[in-house]
Amino acid sequence: MRERLFSLISKYNLKANSDLGQNFLVVPDIIERNVERAELNENDTVLEVGPGLGVLTDALSQHAGKVYAIEKDSRLVEILRAEYDWPNVEIIEGDALKVEFPAFNKIVSNLPYQISSPITFRFLRYDFERAVLIYQLEFARRMVAEPGDRNYSRLSLMVRAKAHAELVERIGRGAFWPKPKVDSAVIVLEPKPRDERIELNEDLVRALFQHRRSTVLAALKKSHHMLGMSKEDFKRVRGLLGAVPHAGKRVFQLVPEDVLDIEGFLKTNGLL
Ligand code: SAM
Asked: Which of 19, 30, 117, 165 is deepest in the core (most CB within 10 A)?
């Protein structure tokens, strides 16, 4: 696999495009483990974002019924189409943040790190069984951080509202060509059942996490402009805010249900 990759790189005189997060996996074991983690069989339809030179795609095609691989770099799309003859893989040329997703039930990808956050939120708008994803280590740590942790952030809360995320393996930078500046990690993501998923008001979450170490009350006061309140509005309702649920809790300790309570209070009082 490593030989195949480097022979393609030299045949097409490829320079990795760092703007597209092109760091290709060169360690077959990692690919095998991720394919195993996805628990694939012939009934599965897998979505892959960023097939690159097809090393992971090749393994996926051997274990799943169907693979859709979305690649933005037209040069790589040309190479994939010329070099492989997969009967069950469809390469979709385009930006994974914009193209319409085909129906799928699993996702396996070594993601371009530039789009980690928006692509994760896009995934979470779909129903699927399981995703096995490689992210930058720091991002992965934030995804799985628990309320009260040093890394607990807006991302942690938003992921927690919709899914179970587990960091299952740390990957050193030597596993990629070219070597990235930071380490990576594998995350297994499983959406919660629909009726357990919590839709949070993103403006409110952003406003709160602007001051993650403050109390809820202090954060709301400091970020009132982000909730569309003018100075005058704010002065008028200042007193009311004291009764907001979880007022004394620190923002980085909030669970999604707490944010729902806060949202309910603000809405009932015409503040949101
Ligand atoms: N899967 C390959 C591997 O593991 O070796 C390549 C992974 S590389 C980290 C990320 C891939 O995503 C690159 O092929 C890059 O061109 C592609 N890419 C970057 N931005 C993209 C986007 N917005 N939509 C689809 N593909 C994208």
From this structure: 165
Instruction: Answer yes or no: is the ipTM higher than 0.85.
Output: yes
pLDDT, tens digit (0-9, with 9 covering 90-100), for 190-203: 999 999 999 999 99
Q: Is the dihedral angle over the CA atoms 104, 123, 129, 74 positive or is it negative? A: positive
Q: How far apart are CA 116 and CA 167, in angstroms?
A: 15
CB contact set of 228 (below 8 Å; sequence gap of 6+): 203
Examine residue 178 and say whether the peptide bond preceding it is cis (omega within 30 degrees of 0): yes
Closest CA to 170 of 178, 159, 182: 182
Q: By the 8 A CB rule, do 5 and 29 touch?
A: no
Please tell me if the CB atom of residue 51 comes closer than 6 angstroms to any atom of ligand 1.
yes
**70 CB under 6 A from ligand 1?**
yes
Beta bridge partners of 169: 186
Enumerate helices (H) and strands (E) in the chain, giving the number of each.
11, 9
> Is 208's C-beta closer than 6 angstroms to any atom of ligand 1?
no
- 42-73, pLDDT tens digit by residue? 999 999 999 999 999 999 999 999 999 999 99
pTM as predicted: 0.94
* Cα of 208 vs its chain's centroid, Å: 21
